[in-house]
Specification:
This protein is of the alpha+beta class. It is built from four helices and six strands, in the order H-H-E-E-H-E-E-H-E-E. It has two domains: 38 residues; 84 residues, TonB (TolA/TonB C-terminal domain), CATH 3.30.2420.10. Helices cover 32% and strands 25% of the residues. The strands form two sheets. Strands 1-6-3-4 form a four-stranded mixed β-sheet, covered by helices on one side.
Length: 131
């Protein structure tokens, strides 16, 4: 059987004015920092200008068969060494999702400063008319 002492101690701390203030301050700091963030990345909506290696995704066979075209936006996080650490599908036709994410993860960048970088990559899927 578990002891109720730890819960009682927490409730007792919450009833003191100083710990409540500290908890509120910690909550505000975490709220401002955002979910899962430990350090801020240099954000630039035009991250493609820092790319040193761009990988174009292949046109999916089904999209070609049914003449589906579109623009895909992928949000990426880049480490200070220029490698993509995270890629997230933002918008675009779902049929292009996996090939776009795979391609975005293979890009590499030269950040303007020696710190992390974040922004978006745009992929355009357009069929060749004569081909």
């Amino acid at each position: 059987m578990m002891s109720m002492a730890p819960t009682y101690r927490i409730l007792r701390l919450l009833s003191c004015p100083l710990p409540r203030t500290v908890l509120v301050l910690v909550y505000v700091v975490l709220l401002l920092a955002g979910p899962g963030s430990t350090a801020r990345a240099f954000e630039d909506p035009n991250i493609e200008k820092y790319a040193v290696k761009k990988v174009q995704p292949p046109y999916p066979e089904m999209a070609e068969k049914y003449h589906i075209e579109g623009i895909v936006v992928v949000k990426v996080s880049v480490a200070a060494d220029g490698k993509v650490t995270q890629a997230e599908f933002v918008r675009g036709p779902n049929i292009f999702r996996s090939v776009s994410l795979d391609a975005a993860k293979r890009w590499s960048f030269k950040p303007p400063t020696n710190e992390a970088l974040a922004g978006t990559i745009h992929f355009t899927f357009k069929l060749n008319v004569g081909g």
